[in-house]
Amino acid sequence: MLQRYRIRWTKVGRTRFISARDLTSVWERALRRADLPIAYSEGFTPHPKVSFPDALPVGVRSTGEYAELTFAAPIEPASDLAALSATLPAGMDITTYLEVPDGAPKLAKMLRVTLWELAWPPVDLTELRELLATRAEELLASTSVEVIRHRPDGDRTIDVRPAVLALAASTRPGTPTRDAHTVLRAVLRNDGPTVRPTDLHAALAPDEVAAPAAVTRCVQGTEVPGGVADALDGEVEPLVPDVDAEAA
42, 57, 95, 167: most buried, per Cβ within 10 A? Predict the structure, then answer.
């Protein structure tokens, strides 16, 4: 009896440099080490039934990656998925799981939006936050914002405005383990033409502001007032980071 689970997992640290092409091999090795009964496809080249809805650009960190795993026999999710998480490379951790009921919509359809975070180091924090906030307001008030995406096969002009649902700039104060930094969070639609954080930076302030020092895909799911509800457990990731909660 086949059993399907949907998981949320992280891709941080050195693992953010694992390409989408190599990702399947990483998971296949981890499943083998964890000795879990993953199901395999049929045909001349069977491969484990692990599907990833959306590839993450190389070098981008994420706390909101998702996958669907199909097992050929029942598993004990609490212990077996914990064992699988332990066999994955450092930086790749399973944080949430959900058994897929019969008739459930496809995983990709549940990932309607993404909350992205762009972060800059502590240089003129107030000035940078105010500039980003102003540009964000201007973008949201516009009906069309075109940027040029440079590609090896030729430049392409895209309109980023239809994909942008919400933007918020804020400053995170320093902590004993982290310097203060400026943050821009954006809720982008996943349907339609793909808009990446690099496109958003190009639309906001490419000349005045250097490329962000870090980009994170925080969560995927459904837009709700003030943030995004995770596709699996419904927990809301706020558009404006809760600084007090982070410091606790």
Answer: 167
